[in-house]
Amino acid sequence: MARRPKAAAAEPEATAGRADAPRRKGGRRTTPSVETLSGLPPERLIGLILGETARNPAFKKIVSAALAALQGPEAVAAIVDRRLSALEGARGFIDWQRRRAFTADLNATVSVIVDELRPLDAVAALDRLVRFLDGASGVLARVDDSLGITEGVYERAAEAAVEIVGALSEGEAAGFAARILPLVAGDPDGPLGMLFLDLIPRLPDGALPALDAELAQALASIPEEPGDWRAGRARGRLLRARQDIADRRGDVDAFVALEEAVAGEAADNVAIAERLLAAGRPEEALERVRRPRQRGAAPVTREALITGRVDAEAPVRARAAAEIRILDALGRGEEAQALRWQRFHDSLDAGMLRDYLAKLPDFEDDEALRAAFDRATAFPQPYRALTFLINWPDLDRAGRLVLDRAGTWEGERYEVLAPAAEALEQARPEAAALLYRRLIDDILDRGRSQAYAHAARYLAQLEPIDPEYGAFRERLRRDHGRKHAFWSLVGGR
């Protein structure tokens, strides 16, 4: 084997593995950048561009638009208009095999509008973005877009349109918003409906009164016919827009009236109470926040969508927090404290407990904290109790809870047990070991091969803290010896 050259061996470690480190041979950088590309001859760059245009239709569209920009905005607009006309006239279904290329083409169209047409004529670019967004429902109806990738192009276009409107004068911005009102009413759930709501926070203050008048006129033209869900959706969208305008203008009474017009008995009393409090009307705010609200679906957050869990207590938590703020504003501190403690007692809300303790006189917080921990250890929902004690943290009590309720823990609740076991490794290793064994057993008993790597990691973490590790591993070998994918990860023979 050839000996490594001494010069290479002496190379400083600081440059090893760096993306921008120079190549050893010749010392030239190969990462494309303004600096490196400027070193290529123009003929070579032209050849690379032409080669990519032959292979990549979307890139060819962008290059063609850049060349058209040399002739002026009309030439770029003509390219965009031809593509928009083709999209509006197309009827064929785009299956998953063609979706990637089709989406790349759509994305290139947006890039041409934003990067080439907008610098030359922002209003023309805005008009094309609106036309592109107005055709969204027709395009998305004929694309296999189960992952939402194509829809993401329309979201990008809407964001670009909002940014352009934000740079317009008051008159131009108001005129644009009024111009797309009929399109919003026709497709209230489409990208233009969302664009319209996103516009309101970006509009200049002087544009709001005229837009509100346009909205009122548009609402008057929508018939209120029972069973016409599309008209109902359009009315709801426009009412929400008027409500956002009222919010920006600080008109609390208008906000309340519009909230009740949209939601009726399910009106968001917390949102109303917060605005009444901000307006210096705490008595009205307290009356409003204490009104019963018609039960509806719990709000779904992005995290809930990902995990499949919905935070059903979010409305209750928000209502309690708002009521406490109002009581404090009214000088009714004892009632606010009682509500903080009740909220903690009912749900082990750590934030409420911290606020409660912070409001107590000196030397009273220790006794209150002991009462809180007693409540936590006796709480009827053990997973919530464990989560509270781990996060507070009180690892000694958390460990005792694990051991006292040893028969409770189920490995399928890994989102609670895994972080708890890791947190308890040093403070209460016997409790951590119990949880790790539950997690491993659940994965192997269910044959969840996609989680075998986690089980192998749990087993490695279990070894140094569990005196009965050997017996546990032998049992695993006896019960699950044929799960070779798992044993290959732990190095079992």
From TrEMBL:
The lineage of its organism: Bacteria, Pseudomonadati, Pseudomonadota, Alphaproteobacteria, Hyphomicrobiales. It comes from the Bacteria. It holds the Pfam family DUF6880. Residues 7-19 have a biased composition (Low complexity). InterPro entries: DUF6880. Residues 1-39 are annotated as: Disordered. This is Uncharacterized protein.
